[in-house]
Amino acid sequence: MDKALEKFGNDIAIAFSGAEDVALIEYARLTGRPFRVFSLDTGRLNPETYKFFDEVEKHYGIRIEYMFPDAVEVQALVRSKGLFSFYEDGHQECCRVRKVRPLRRALKGLRAWITGQRKDQSPGTRLEVPVVQVDPVFEGMDGGVGSLVKFNPVANVKGDDVWKFLRTMNVPVNSLHAKGYISIGCEPCTRPVLPGQHEREGRWWWEDSKAKECGLHKGNIKEEILNGNGNGAANANGNATNTDLLVNENVMNLSRPGIENLLKLENRREPWVVVLYAPWCQFCQAMEGSYIELAEKLAGSGIKVGKFRADGEEKAFAQQELQLGSFPTILFFPKHSARPIKYPSEKRDVDSLLAFVSALR
Predict the structure, then answer these.
(1) The Thioredoxin domain covers which part of the protein (predicted)?
(2) Which of 101, 142, 96, 135 is nearest to 293 (CA)?
(3) What backbone phi and psi angles, to 5 degrees, belong to 343?
(4) How many CB atoms lie within 10 A of CB 279?
(5) pLDDT higher at 228 or 329
(6) Got the DSSP string for 148-185?
């Protein structure tokens, strides 16, 4: 903790979930250095968690930097699928709207962040969590792969030892812990666990126990788990049945015939930007917000924005005809040229993407 705060100063923040990760705030206090804390308010937390946030702010004399989901996105999700759709088709879509995208916005203002991940929290996904790493999914303020450092200072600490520390230091804790809750998230997706049950069994209990991550730490999940997502088994061609990405009115979903027609046109009415993606790919998930923002900025500009799912049976075609190397691959189809131009950079923030498009339009 001390090394992290010393190196990154005001460009690092602690991610606080309202559970036993309050230990991170106590460790930061003990260093004597200034520190920042942020939290994701999904709008569906337990009343006890909101009270706990207030207690923590008063105990430490700090102001937690709350991040909220986009109201329009939440409204669209609830109006189209109801308040509890995650019980039927998995938690990923709701978590992406309420947690992952707000987290992405928070991290874009940082160079590093600090989490309370521990190896013993989730044997299926966190056994290999290192103490410090280059974030495999999200980007920091400088943009691009490697622009964000992730500290997991309690990665090697046992849960029992965290609790001994909290009791010794007389740190305030969430009152839900006294009611049998160990891992605490949103109210509809969290329940107490019985003696002998693992702490993560209280989260998304209706899903596959191997993939119990909400997307904040999606980089922990191995590709073979992602391809057979906890929301359902893989289908016959190897594509996971998990929720699609880049769903937006300004992003056109191209079929195989659609992308083939686009390739054949030498004189297009308008230029196109198309991303080749796979929903299970963590890097595609990480750039989702930037790509949707790009589409919204280009709406009405005369440039079309599309996506083409290029995994499974389409992968060989995409590699041969669309210059697919790895996911995501972004292509620009000029107005008066048949061959698309491949975006050459690993920077996938909206400003870099706009610069690429503007240079070629």
Answers:
(1) 245-361
(2) 101
(3) -65, 120
(4) 22
(5) 329
(6) -EEE-TTTTS-HHHHHHHHHHTT----GGGGGT--S--
Length of the chain (residues): 361
Q: How many CA atoms lie within 13 A of 70 on its CB side?
A: 15
Helix (H, G, I), strand (E, B) or coil at 316: helix
What DSSP string runs through 301-312?
Answer: TT-EEEEEE-SG
pLDDT in tens, 220-277: 555 443 344 333 333 333 344 457 899 899 999 999 999 999 998 877 889 999 999 9
Q: How many CB atoms lie within 10 A of CB 9?
A: 14
Q: How many CA atoms lie within 13 A of 251 on its CB side?
A: 21
* Distance (Å) of CA 154 to CA 5, 23, 112, 203, 274: 15, 9, 16, 21, 41
Strands 65-67 and 112-114 turn out to be unpaired
95 is catalytic: no
pTM: 0.64
More confident residue, 84 or 212: 84
Which one of 95, 186, 214, 281 is the catalytic residue?
A: 281
Catalytic site includes residue 94: no
For residue 136, give the DSSP letter: S
**pLDDT tens-place string over residues 70-79:** 999 999 999 9
Instruction: Tell me the two tokens of residue 179.
Output: 């009611």
Question: For residues 193 and 176, what is the distance between their CA atoms, to the nearest angstrom?
Answer: 11
The CA-atom distances, in angstroms, between 223 and each of 66, 227, 283 are 31, 6, 12
